[in-house]
Structures are given as C-alpha cells and as structure tokens.
Amino acid sequence: MIQHEVRTHKSAEDFPIEEHLAYKIAKVAADPVEVPEDTREMIINRIIDNASVAVASYNRRPVAVAREMAKAHPANNKGALVFGEDGTYSAEWVAFANGTAVRELDYHDTFLAAEYSHPGDNIPPMIAVAQHKGLDGKTLIRGIATGYEVQVNLVKGISLHEFKIDHVAHLGPSVAAGLGTMLGLDVDTIYQAVGQALHTTTATRQSRKGLISSWKASAPAFAGKMAIEAVDRAMRGEGAPAPIWEGEDGVIAWMLHSPERTYTVPLPADGEEKRAILETYTKEHSAEYQAQAPIDLARRMKQTIADAGKTTADIESIVLHTSHHTHYVIGTGANDPQKMDPKASRETLDHSIMYMFAVALEDGAWHHVDSYAPERANRPETVELWHKISTVEDPKWTRRYHSTDPDEKAFGARAVITFKDGSVIEDEMAVADAHPLGARPFARENYIAKFRTLAEGIVDTQEQERFLAAVQDLENLTDLTELNIRVNDATRAAAPEIPGGIF
C-alpha cells in the first residue's frame, strides 16, 4: 500500500493532475490486476448478504416507494431488474430502488475506522449497470473489488463525521471507481467521474441525528444513483470540479477540517491485489454495527443475571463503558431524547444502544422485526429498564475502535449492572460473535443460513435455490439477471399502496 498525503492546495500552486487524490483513485480503478480468490469468495458472500436483507425489507414502505419510483422509469434499451420484480427499468433508478432495499434494515456489512461505512452499498449500483450493459460475473467481481478497495481506504484516511458530513461522501467516489473498472474506462474518464460523484453526494449527517427518518436508507442508494450518472456524463466527455478534495474551495478546505489539515489515504500500488473487502464484517443482528457486540453481551448477561438469582426487575442501573462513537452517536452522549422514546421510529431505535441492550437483556435474543415492533418498544417493563441505561466514553474502547491492528480493533463495551441491593455484575465483549475474531465468525454457510431465514415465506424455496446456485458460480455467470430474486405472489400482493408522485 502507498500512503498518500492529501491536503488543500491554492489555485496558484503547481499541483499536477497526477497528484490529485481522484486521479490516484482512478489509477487504482484502471489497474488490470486480477482479483484474488479470497476476495472473489467474499464478494459472493456479500451479494448473498445483500439479497437477504433486500428480500426481508421488500414490503417496508421506503423500499416500496423507491421501487415504484424505479418502475416509473422504463429502460430505453436493455435495462436492469428491480429486486423482487419482473421487468427492466433504467439502471440508475434500479440502483436507487435496490440500494434502498439493501440498506433499509441496517443489516448488511460494515467497516469502521476514521469514518463509518457500509461498503456493501457499492453492490446494487454495480449490479444494475452490469445488467444494463450485459456484462458477465467475472467483470462484476472486478468492479465490486474496486468499490470496496476505494471506500475502505477513504474510510481509513478521512473522517467525515467529525465535521458532520454523512459517510456516503466516500461511497459516491467508490461506486464511480468500481464502475470505471467494470466498464474498462481509462484513467482520465474515471478521474472526472470520481470528482463528479464526490461533488454530488456530499451532504450533512442530519439524516442520522435526532428523529431519524427513512432517508437513512435512501441516502446511500441516492449516492449510487448519482455515481452512475457521474460516470455516464464523464463517458460523454464532461468534466468535474477539480481538484475536488484538495482545491482551495474544495472538500477538505470548507467541508472538512480546514486548509491546514493533511490527511493520509492508503491505496494499492500498481499491480497490488485488491483485498480490502476482507477487512470488512457483516451483521448477525439488524442494528447499527456498534450495537452488535453489546447485543451479544446482553444475551450472555441475561444468563449471568439468572445464575445470580436475580431478574431485570432487580436492576437499579446499567452503565455501558464504550467508545467515543458508540457513546456520542447511539448512546446517551448523543443527547437525543428520541433515543429514549418508545414511540420513536424504527430507524431511531436501531440507533439507540440503550433500547437495544434492554430488549436483548430481557429476551436473550434479537429479531429484525419483532425486536422493533411498537408493542415491543412500548412494553412498560422494557421502558423502565431502558431508561436505567446510560453510556460513558472509555478511552480504552475509543483507542481500540481506532486501532490499525486487526487483532486489537474492537467495537465493544463493558457493562456494569448495579442491582437495588447494591450488588454489581460486570462483563465485557470486544467483538460480536459473528465478527472474524468472534465466537462464531460468519462463513459461507452462515451467509446462506441468513438468506434462507430472511427469505422464508417471501421467496419460494425453488427460487431461493436457483439464486444460491447462480451466485455461487458468479465467476462463470454470463447472464447477471440471474442475480435478481423474484418474491412470491403473496408477498407482492401484500406490498403497501404508494400514492402517485411526479413520475
């Protein structure tokens, strides 16, 4: 890996295009290096993972809205497939619909470093364009490998949330780069597409603050759509604001720290394999990633409490000692009263570690639908327990969160439960059970099991098996429409009615 220093340059400075971060990313995208086998296999896992959560969210309203918007844009030539449906539609709108379906339940893969990300968001726009262009599975694999590589390394090098910029500002460029790889574009074209994609996908983090709306699911899908349009314009000869990151009025100078900040972004050298996807991890539970280990910890502590002859009704308080991010984004450090409100939206509850720890501690389990049901959130004893939970930042967990050593990097917490009689139970968990270093790391069989569980009753068994056979032979697949899954008629009939819009 090459560590690239990235800083603001005045317009009068001699700053050749080859030194621009967007150009360096474009060179990575245009590199013809082969994709290694373990990267290929993990890409297949993540396509299965995305399909799992997309079918499970089929009848959720934001997904139905995005689907109807896509279906209002028929393709003028080959087109792409909306997840769960028949018929082909315009690729950029299909990317928006399918990206929303993948993101809606907060249930697919993650990578956390200086910034946050869900790099599986790269997959829907790439499949949509690959279907539209009639590409094969091997070509799709190359594009996805680049998308992950670029997004993961931007996440390592540049913090966005520190300045209240949403993490999808790293996704637009990564999708554009991945599409450049997939379409075999030259460095100069990819450079312009990356710049346009960043310029059009930079927004504030208000989408993840306070009462969180359905835009949380749509934001990465919109970034994918914008990236497709950016690539299309660049292919037709249109340019981008430049240098997009380093310009005197660019992203670093005015949207991030200041012209004085220098960032370091790692990128592969020429000929270096793209392996960043192997550093990412998926979710066993439908919740913000920092909640994965605490949910598993709560499930374990339920038994500890029972062994001590106590119940949750005996609890006086629970304090979760955790990282800066967990405390300030999904903990009490956020100062969001909505995170303690039983009438809050599902999008808000899956960003409330207090709520999730309470439910997991009571139930000893977690379910992507039942654990968020309004009747579950409004259960009086749950509300009482929930309001006894607080978080504090612990430097140990913040340091581990930002560690570059994969054996030390962790997103966990230490729970201190104090009972009304003054006794205390403590336990901690560094990584979730499903994490590569966890008690039960996810392997191919776990991805398949997750898919079958979430597809049950939504996708007929024969269709499930057809999809699993196709995706596991992705490198030899020539018809990428086989990656689409058709939901059963009963599921389609149960879809919510969506009022008409402009289209």
UniProtKB/TrEMBL annotation:
Domain MmgE/PrpD C-terminal: 285-475
Keyword Ubl conjugation belongs to the record: no
InterPro entries given in the database record: 2-Methylcitrate_Dehydratase (IPR053420), MmgE/PrpD_sf (IPR036148), MmgE/PrpD_sf_1 (IPR042183), MmgE/PrpD_sf_2 (IPR042188), MmgE_PrpD (IPR005656), MmgE_PrpD_C (IPR045337), MmgE_PrpD_N (IPR045336)
Keywords from the UniProt entry: Lyase
Keyword Cell inner membrane assigned: no
Domain of life: Bacteria
Similarity comment: family membership: Belongs to the PrpD family.
PANTHER family: 2-METHYLCITRATE DEHYDRATASE (PTHR16943:SF8), 2-METHYLCITRATE DEHYDRATASE-RELATED (PTHR16943)
Protein name: 2-methylcitrate dehydratase
Lineage of the species this protein comes from: Bacteria, Bacillati, Actinomycetota, Actinomycetes, Mycobacteriales
